Amino acid sequence: MRKVGIIGVGEYLPSKILTNADLEKMVDTSDEWITTRSGIKQRRLVAKGEAASDLAIKAAKGALKGARLKPHDLDLIIVATITPDMQFPSVACILQDALSAKDAICFDISAACAGFVYAIVIAQQFIAAGTCKNALVVGVEVLSTITDWQDRNTCVLFGDGAGAAVLAPVKSGGILSGYLGSDGSKKGLLMLPGGGSRNPTSQQTLNKRLHYLKMKGNELFKLAIMTMTKAAQQALKQAGLKCSDLDIIIPHQANVRILMAVAKKLGVSKDKVYMNIEKYGNMSSASTATALCEAVKEGRVKKGDIVLLDAFGAGLVWGACIIEW
Ligand code: UT7
Q: Can you give the residue ranges of every domain in the chain?
């Protein structure tokens, strides 16, 4: 099996900023509540007419530039998203066309907030098996389009953005392990009930606001801590490493309190946990992807570092991978 590494990263955040002060004018909330309960101060929102693929293209171009590859070098594109431009075709196919990456196999995956980690592990396996050589993985979300802006329980938490990574064979280091898990019995904790084949869009589904995401945040909170901790431990075990070997944790950004609790359970110092939730909120699959990109660009990830990607989301699904940078 070939060793596989991440050789380029990119991101794109839309320019429109929605602050907690703005939200105070929209629903019964406060900057104090949002900050202390989640750690979020502001989030980015797309402009009218801007869709997932528009964000994905910009993040992908950054990752390709970092990898010093051209679109025609790609033979695989995987996009992790729960907010595609449309039901089909996939965002990956739209992206292929926009980039002119004519030789790439393209598909989207639905693994919510763990989508980027899932897609990294899938791409790694394609490359390790020799099926593909160069893969582009994108985590992109336009959560503002499925957020109920009248529901204070959820609307303060989410944002829009995209992050991307290019994977390729490497001589040493690279992805040392990938651990994925799922528990469909908890599917009801976070879902978008309307618009699918179960509840096709109708005046009734619109009246019931089923086209917006529904979340039982409090129940998810405890599961997120437990599951992200377990995923990290399993990925470390697979790689033959200990928590003390970690140089940096790049987690899904759902809540600062979740991340601090996971660090405590793992016995890892809080300053090793990379966070961008304050600026962007929870961007589902784009959270881990942009956090990785920013950590690399800020010099927080250096050659030889042991990096943990760790994510959890609707499904439930979770995943972690260890990378020697
Ligand atoms: O991305 C992966 C999946 N998502 C997650 O993992 C999210 C995990 N959950 C969380 O991060 C937290 O549960 C939240 C940030 C969503 C909520 O924090 P919490 O400490 O669990 O609050 P809560 O839901 O227990 O609500 C506490 C109170 C409630 O009032 P009562 O019933 O105690 O009177 C809520 O109605 O806070 C109220 N509340 C708000 N108050 C002001 C809920 N939302 C707001 C709000 N502003 N925006």
A: 4-171, 176-324
